[in-house]
User: What shape does this take?
Amino acid sequence: MTYEGVLKKMQTELEDTVQYYWLLPGEFVHVNTLLERQLKLELLGFQCLNCGLDRPIFRQGFCRSCFFEIPQAGDWIMRPELSQAHLGKEDRDLEYEKKMQLQPHIVYLANSSNVKVGVTRKSQVPTRWIDQGAHEAIGIVETPNRYLAGITEVALKEHVSDKTNWRKMLTNNAKDEDLFAWRERLKTYIPEEALPYFLASTKETNISFPVLKYPEKVNSLNLDKTPEYSGKLMGIKGQYLIFEDNTVFNIRSNEGYVVRLSLA
Ligand SMILES: [Zn+2]
Assistant: This one.
């Protein structure tokens, strides 16, 4: 069986074990069913997720010129504290920014390799946690816009990491933490403006990933250097495919790459 198409992050469903789906033109692949199968990945070209042209991908699935122009790649995406739609100030396209920023956001703690703080739109819970490979996560505040969530994250990251160590996440080298206790400890550092939005009643979400065997060390597959790769799929965690030979492939950072996927 062969599938061809542009890579986009896998769709997920939180069940007892996370279920992963690949949406390709005319195809809907349930990736969990490919476990223990021999897969071959071949790079065919690129397709910018915005303009659709076959140009090298710069960041977030976009070619360089789209990345620096389109509202979907504004600085406030990666740095929520720069959001200004609540002030009516435009970055690249005020209508788009209002639609995305002026909606409920969650500041959360997630544990994938260590406890980290993050921000996401409320509609992206628990998707965002699954995409990060977090085995446990909890909300801290639910704000009415992205800016308030952003300044809360900036304040909290003085006291807790805001980064995931993906190598540690993929070797399953993380201990369980009492995120509820972490949350209570961090509460005192929440900015006054955001404090009214502290989530009073909430509990930890636990997530289990379909991994048959974790790698001992990880080698990341880079399609630019290795345009053809074959291996036996042994797990899926976050947006990574994990192969038997310790190779891992980050679907997220290969968005916009056009590939052929063949099953032996
Ligand atoms: Zn483009």
Observations:
- The pocket of zinc ion is lined by residues 48, 50-51, 53, 62-63, 66 (CB under 6 Å).
- Helices lie at 64-67, 75-78, 94-101, 127-131, 146-156, 166-170, 179-186.
- The first helix runs from residue 64 to 67.
- The chain has seven helices and 16 strands.
